[in-house]
Inverse folding.
């Protein structure tokens, strides 16, 4: 096991007092941008899971990302098979689109 995984697991174990041997997390970075990352991990906290399910059911995005060209991003993501919940739509001064991340979250893109 790589050292950073062992350190991270030990921190989680100390914090939550649980056995996380089978859990993993994933860090995503933007292509060509090592200064931007998104950490994805297992949802093992019951109150957090309840919140996630409630905002998903209500149609509320879990997070939003600003993009320069929402039409271009929407087409790119659609080509990759990402499920669109709201196609690019003008909403006041901004244009939005919402996608399902297949992990129980809605992700919103915003162009202003």
């Amino acid at each position: 096991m790589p050292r950073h995984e062992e350190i991270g697991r030990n921190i989680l174990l100390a914090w939550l007092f649980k056995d996380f041997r089978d859990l993993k997390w994933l860090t995503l970075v933007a292509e060509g941008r090592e200064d931007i990352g998104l950490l994805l991990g297992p949802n093992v906290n019951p109150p957090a899971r309840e919140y996630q399910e409630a905002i998903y059911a209500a149609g509320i995005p879990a997070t939003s990302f600003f993009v320069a060209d929402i039409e271009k991003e929407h087409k790119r993501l659609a080509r990759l098979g990402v499920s669109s919940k709201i196609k690019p739509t003008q909403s006041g001064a901004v244009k939005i689109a919402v996608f399902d991340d297949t992990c129980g979250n809605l992700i919103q893109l915003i162009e202003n």
